[in-house]
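Hello,

Following up on my earlier ticket. Below are the two sequence lines again, exactly as submitted.
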Amino acid sequence: MDITRLVSTHRKLLLGGFLILILIFLATFPLYAKAYDVRVLTFILIYVVLAAGWAMFSGTTGYMSLAPAAFFGLGIYAMAILQHNLPFPLIIAIGGALSFAFAVLVGLVTLRLKGMYFAIFTFGLVVFMTEIVQYMETRLTGKHGQSIIPIDIETLFYIMVGVAVATVLVTYLIRRSRWGLAMLGIGGNEEAAEHMGVNTTRVKVFTFAVSSAFMGAAGVVAAPVLIYVNSNIAFSLYYSFLPIFMAILGGMGTAYGPVIGAVILGYLDTTLRSQLFNYFYLGFGTIMVLIIVFLPSGITGLVPLVQERIAKLTAKSRKGGQGQQHANT
Amino acid sequence: MGERVLSLIIVGVLQGGVYGLLAMGLSLQYGVCRVLNITHGEFVMLGAVLTYVLSSGLGLNPLLAPVILGPLLFGLGFLLQATLFRALKTRAPSLAAFEGNALLAAFGVLYIIEYVARISFGSTLMPSYYLSDRVSVLGMNFILNQFVTFGIALLLGVAVYLFLNRSRMGKAIRATAEDPGTAGLMGVNTNMILAFSFGLGALLAAVAGTLISTKTAVSTGMGFSNTVIALIVVVLGGLGSVPGSFVAGIMIGIVSQLVAGLWEPILTVPVYYAMLMLLLLVRPTGILGKK
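Thanks for your patience. The regenerated structure is below:
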């Protein structure tokens, strides 16, 4: 029995088992790991949400949103403002809802237009948010920056697992639905999709808002991990660019591609960035260019290629074997 | 009060010349090569920082720095288009896919340029002021470099406009922007034209960088905010329209001075944004854009 056939016939079973293993790993991780490692993994999960959220909209429709940080930061600031007044789970919901509403507003203005306007507009949105929040903050409180009451890292970790699983699950479900097909249609040929009866503006705006809601929720959970935030930290461009790099590295053709990218780059980010600093970013840019040129479908894009290669090899060896049998008889 | 507003408007117009120059390069790159070049600000940064390095290290007059930096950055832009973006274009299934991939690749290039510069020149502010003598015109106070930079920017703007509209090469560039396939059939070497246009955009960015360096302290982290301004100006003026970029640049210059002078400096970008939103709602093709 060769492995490829085993994999292809029991694919669903294997995949299910693998997912259960991951969930068990996540559920038990804080029991034996050090607090520092739990913190690292929490941050990786935050990146998973940002990358999967970004790919949910931009990966399928082809509209490049360059503003994950705007929605992420909105969540962070929702937490900073409401932390003394409301229970934590409620703030997570509010952070998501706020980002959703803001994304609808941005989407309605920019997504009616085709082409690069959306990319241009979202590119500066982060700067817009940074400055307007700083202005409001210094006006209202007289200082720039807020400290967040720390929350037990294990609690944050489990909440983040929940948010990340929800994000990936929703991405997966959207991909399988008519809605997902409509989005792929928009990415392939928007005009044709429109003629087929897809209400392209509604699909685009709604998906953009859903993906932003997850980023906002992630921001709320990220705030206590960061402990201190100001508008430059919360709306850091890095949180816009990194998730995009992650989604591309992992590959946007599948729901799990961005997750793989987020785990790889997120791990490198949390462990290497503070040590290598400038060289880290330099390596980052170089890898990005190389991936876009040589591997535009990302790491997961390699899977079908490798499968094909293996299938060809096994087919060849089987054929060879059969040939010998014929010769013998 | 009236005089203060008037002087702010004049400073704004002078400032706007540089913004126009900044945006013109980007407009050319997007209009001809279809690359939304978000590394544009990094080229501006290179122009500004290298001007400071040349003038403080070798004692070169900052306004002569473009003579060296112009060709240098032209070459860099030329090479980028001739290798990276050309490769992406031949591999992309459609124009939309190419525009998306080019944007993302430009991200990578942005990081490479910015951090190579940070590693080589550090991240501190460099006091690159030049010609900062006060001059008084009609009883109002100005700084000499404001006039000089505006003059150079305007001159270059007119030169590029004439080049695009009157010369044979300019005709080829416009033809390639309009319809690369047909232009190629008519004997235009489109790959060369694309690379040339991209290089020209980079050269304009370099000169803009030099001009900016005379007015403010520069640093290796200045690229991004310049990209944002250039993008806003380009959209306001209409993607791909050179005179539109200049008009919009002057408009943004005036607005920035009025907002910073009469209201709050930190609110300039939010105000640009409000203008952009309004324009996108009312007239999506920009002030002087066609379609």
